[in-house]
Design goal:
Mean pLDDT: 89
Number of helices: 2
CATH architecture: Sandwich
Order of helices and strands: HEEEEEEEEHEEE
Distance between the termini: 51 Å
CATH topology: Immunoglobulin-like
Helix content: 10-25%
CATH class: Mainly Beta
Number of strands: 11
Shape: elongated
């Protein structure tokens, strides 16, 4: 009987150990998704010129690596932007994540690397994909913890301060 109790205790300990190894602080890769609904009305100040009728969406996947204590050690981001309803042709000049709550203007923190004129919305619609964009570990952690304090926007020659903006939402 004591032998059976010993075996049962060993099996329980092994099961508990295996369960602990599935914790979110296990070292390795993780993907966290954010989205934003992009609108000229969300810009500060709101867009009121020919680009006012446009809209769009962005999906951002943060690919992060954590150490055994759960701290982010490295991060990259993949961006998928879809825009429509803008005047044809609308060349894009920049696209990035800024720090700033709704209604506030903030610094650029994660630049997609989109070059001026690289993408033009020939018919007023189009998409942009940027992958493996470097993100510092501390910025990645803060965006993950407080996505509403960050926004994504896209710029054009007509609206160099931004043509469409949206606050990040974690999915």
């Amino acid at each position: 009987m004591n032998r059976l109790l010993g075996i049962a205790a060993l099996v329980s300990a092994l099961a508990l150990s295996a369960a602990c190894n599935d914790s979110p602080t296990e070292p390795g890769d993780e993907t966290i998704r954010f989205t934003a609904q992009l609108s000229p009305a969300n810009e500060v100040p709101p867009v009121t010129n020919a680009e006012v009728s446009g809209s769009g969406t962005v999906t951002i996947d943060f690919n992060i690596n954590r150490n055994s204590s759960g701290t982010i050690t490295s991060a990259t981001a993949d961006f998928q932007v879809t825009l429509n309803g803008f005047p044809a042709p609308t060349p894009l000049t920049m696209a990035h994540i800024h720090g700033g709550a709704s209604g506030a203007i903030g610094d650029i923190l994660v630049n997609t690397g989109l070059a001026p004129g690289e993408v033009s919305l020939a018919n007023g619609s189009g998409s942009v994909t940027k992958t493996n964009v470097s993100v510092t570990a501390n910025i990645a952690q803060d965006i993950i913890s407080n996505p509403a304090n960050y926004y994504f926007n896209v710029h054009s020659p007509l609206n160099p301060a931004g043509m469409a903006r949206g606050q990040l939402v974690r999915q």
